[in-house]
Amino acid sequence: METHIRKLETSRNRILSKVVAIMCVLAFAIGGASAANADYFAGGMASKKNSVKYVGVNSTYVNHFDNARFRSNALSGVTFGKSNAAKNTMTAARYSSSWYGLYTSKGPRDRSRTFTIQVNARSIQEASGRNMSKWIASTSTHELGHALSLDGNPKTSKASLMKYSRNRSTVISPLPYNVSEVKRIYR
Questions:
Q1: Residues 118/136, Cβ–Cβ less than 8 Å
Q2: Which of 152, 178, 154, 163 is nearest to 71 (CA)?
Q3: Cβ(40)–Cβ(185) under 8 Å?
Q4: How far apart are CA 48 and CA 186, in angstroms?
Q5: pLDDT tens digits, 135-180
Q6: What does the alpha-carbon distance between residue 177 and residue 155 come to, in Å, rounded to a whole number?
């Protein structure tokens, strides 16, 4: 009888071990998959070389958008050129919505995809206090990050220009995590 009980306990322990092992594999696969690609945005452009034109903005926003392009162009291999013939656009206005910036892509992820970036001057002015220029800089560069296939509010503990919780008065350029993600995405 004692031998039979030991065999049952051994069998039960093997089954429990297998169940725990399977649960660990599933937890790692689910958690690992999302963590590994936490910063990928499928609405980004097929290439990290794109041109953009500015629509309906004054010279202040031209300067802000130029500087956002320059900050993004500092990433290895990234080029955001400026051309009046570009199909991609950046604009700013006083929208009634509460968002600061909005990136919208159209078309399949190939050379025909285009994007529009809108910066909401009203929301930024209301929230930024004396730091409006820095908030415009942070927002403009963040939105260009979407064109580089970087997702908004990535699930990482690392500092990121793409996080909604970033300090928009100090985080105005891509950070090391963003640089590594662009390299990973556009290998």
A1: no
A2: 178
A3: yes
A4: 7
A5: 999 999 999 999 999 999 999 999 999 999 999 999 999 999 999 9
A6: 12
